[in-house]
Amino acid sequence: MNAAGLRAKSIAVIVCLAFAAAGCGGRATVRLRPKAPAKAAAGKKKALPATLTISVVDASTSEPLTNVPVAAGKRYLSTGAAGMAVPGNLTAGDITITARAPQHSIYRQSRHLQAGDNTVTIALSPESETPDSEPVVFRHKAYLTIDDGPSATWTPEVLDILKREGVPATFFVVGWRAAERPDLVRRAYLEGNAIGNHTYSHDYGQLYRGSPRNLTASFARNGLLLKNIIGYAPTVTRPPGGAAGNFRPGWQSRVTGAGYTTVLWNVTTGDGSTRTTSSQMVENAKTYLARLKSPEPAVILMHDIRPPIVKALPKIIAEVRRRGYEFSSVTDDLREPGVIIGPRRKLLPGRF
Ligand SMILES: [Zn+2]
């Protein structure tokens, strides 16, 4: 089978359904299946390998890494998401494979898939560890935080912009939406963005009634879901609507005690309101950015479930750059849970 012939075929993708039982840890299975023969190649049906297994190992120990999200072209699989169906076809030939696991560098390489390939093993390099004694200090950094998604319509456009600009963001995802489009959460993560927890329900009436137990339970439910999607449950969270006006005395310490870091914001684009236009988003961002005093980091609030972000985002990125900030994302690398930043809150030493 030559490369051209192979390209005429397609690859349908399945995941390893019996991941746990069959012990196929660290692998995603891609099934190669010929399409109806193309006219030019009609006649002789050439066999393709039945499956292509992508294995993920740690580069330094060669130990298999399990539950790692992997992108093969535009298909977003997980090596450990048992039973997750991945619909659609892949085009054989050159394909970009991406994988990411906590404490490892993102793997991204183009591979040529051809007949006879049964396995592809990719090795993720461990990131060099920051010594524990070194305080985590964020100075003059900007964090784009994007809440409420993923949205089938707007999240892909937002991801395209971030990719084009070479800028990471932090997506505070809502569980019930992530359950509908886990591929978009995987894509955001595999493209170098951070994933945060914005509760499963995002239902104010349910989350802020009675004790903080409803809120922490909703974080926990979303965390379990996210663990299935990206391989771990993020501890960075954002309460819907923020803590101010929603948290009552004692709530913050309960949330922190449950192991979560609360990430609020100090720059809002105002797009929580459905009436805010993209130009108003940009103006709002400029106003709040102008109020920050260096080296206070900018934590910018936006939403990817409505259209204005698509026009506003490149302009906000340009404004943040103009002010000399370095872009970063909010990851679980923070040493201890705690409140990060919020309206009318002082910066915490060693964090922000
Ligand atoms: Zn929200």
Task: Identify the notable features of this structure and list them briefly.
disordered C terminus; Immunoglobulin-like; 352 residues; globular; alpha/beta; 5-stranded mixed beta sheet; 23% strand; disordered N terminus; 6-stranded parallel beta sheet
Describe what this molecule looks like in 3D:
The protein is built from 10 helices and 17 strands. With 352 residues, the protein is an alpha/beta fold. It has 2 domains: 122 residues, Immunoglobulin-like; 188 residues, TIM Barrel (Alpha-Beta Barrel), CATH 3.20.20. Strands 10, 11, 12, 15, 16 and 17 form a 6-stranded parallel beta sheet that branches. Strand 4 and strand 5 form a beta hairpin. Helix 3 runs parallel beside helix 10 and helix 9 packs parallel to helix 10. The N terminus and C terminus are likely disordered. The structure holds zinc ion. The site of zinc ion (ZN) has 5 residues, from loops.
Summarize the structure.
The chain has 352 residues and is α/β, with parallel strands linked by helices.
Largest sheet: number of strands, sense, barrel closure: 6 strands, parallel
CATH topology descriptor of the largest domain? TIM Barrel
Structural class: alpha/beta
Rg result: 22 Å
**CATH class descriptor of the largest domain:** Alpha Beta
The helix/strand order is HEHEEEEEEEEEHEHHEHHEHEEHEHE
Low-confidence stretches: 1-25, 34-50, 81-89, 133-137, 343-352
In CATH, the homologous superfamily of the largest domain goes by the name Glycoside hydrolase/deacetylase
- Under the CATH scheme, the architecture of the largest domain is Alpha-Beta Barrel
How helix-rich are the residues, as a percent range? 25-40%
Would you tell me the overall average pLDDT? 79
What small ligands are held by the chains?
A: zinc ion
How many domains make up the coordinates?
A: 2
Shape: globular
Count all strands and give the number. Answer: 17
Number of helices: 10
Distance between the termini: 57 Å
